[in-house]
Amino acid sequence: MKTQVAIIGGGPAGMLLSEMLDRAGIASVVLEKHRAEHVLSRIRAGVLEPGTVELLRSLGLGERMDREGHAHDGMKIAWAGRENFMIDVHRHLGRRFVAYGQTQIQEDLMAAAGRRGAAVLYEAEDVALHDLETAHPFVTCRHGGEPLRLDCDFIAGCDGFHGVSRRAIPPAILREFEKVYPFAWLGILSRTPPLPDIVYANNPRGFALASMRSPTLSRYYLQVPLETRLEDWPDERFWTELKARYPREMADAIVTGASIEKSLAPLRSYVAEPMRHGRLFLAGDAAHIVPPTGAKGLNLAVSDVFYLARALGCFYREGSSRLIDGYSDMALRRVWSSVRTSWYLTNLLHRFPGTSDFDQRVQENELTYLRGSGAAQLALAEQYAGLPFEPDPGA
Questions:
Q1: Catalytic site residues?
Q2: Residue-wise burial string across 176-214, b where 16 or more C-beta atoms lie within 10 A, e elsewhere
């Protein structure tokens, strides 16, 4: 097979890139190692930054999101023993988030791909990338039990943290930055009405988060030790502990119910540099991981894809490599901004094992300052909402 862009990974990043390239008249083939049903079964984040919302609408992919998603103005911080306060993104910036599950975005992108007859090859096994530093890279795999070679101009690695794309960059070139946090998040998904706001809780018992996927689907998290086992947390224990970490009026408003999904995720920050090697480009989790505290993971994948689609469009339209050459630096500026925001919120809201009295006082002082300072709230609102996509410097 031959195409212009080979896309490794059929998750939201890969499918969105395929959609955007098609709008620019650029052919692509998506290789996904799992079955379509498996891709749709993955339950991930669902808080969309204003920039992500606007991009999906501009592509004609926002109808269902606007119908089923839940718009909200920012996030509320519940601080044990103190007055709750709101980081009001809408008041400060005039922009709103939308809570809309990643599974739904995946469904929308797959439906759009089906309508345009996109080339998406599921269950592509043993994917390998070749000749990345030449003008004629290619991908090999097995599909339907047969060997397949896919010749292309460029390769987009959208295959997540455990994919093959990042590992194809020579170790002498790749730089990796990582911070591992000493706790995990225990999450639960339930068919219950969520709280009206996304609420982060800082409590001596540990961090908690009340989020949402839709007006009838709630997502809650608890900070737990790394050695926690899912089987030790039946639903009743989870709900009891969750309510204990929120003020009484919020706890009383939490509607409990049977879990439909339960997960355990260690927290870490990770960035790979550069995000380009020869004719290979990394996007999404293949290049970076952020703690979910800042709701940045999916949104960063969207901004990567926006920059990459624009760069490839410039190449094929103008014959210019200026945006391709600048892709990694431009994408990484936004990545590091989001990594910093997620790191800040993680440190602000969690109780770290072995924290000294000094460190605890500093955290409390930071929360006091944030609660009382409009300037500090504006700065956090701007970062939490996500920085605007950078314009084309040559336009």
A1: 72, 200, 292, 296, 384
A2: eeeeebebbbbbbbbebbbbebbbbbbbeebbbbbbbbb
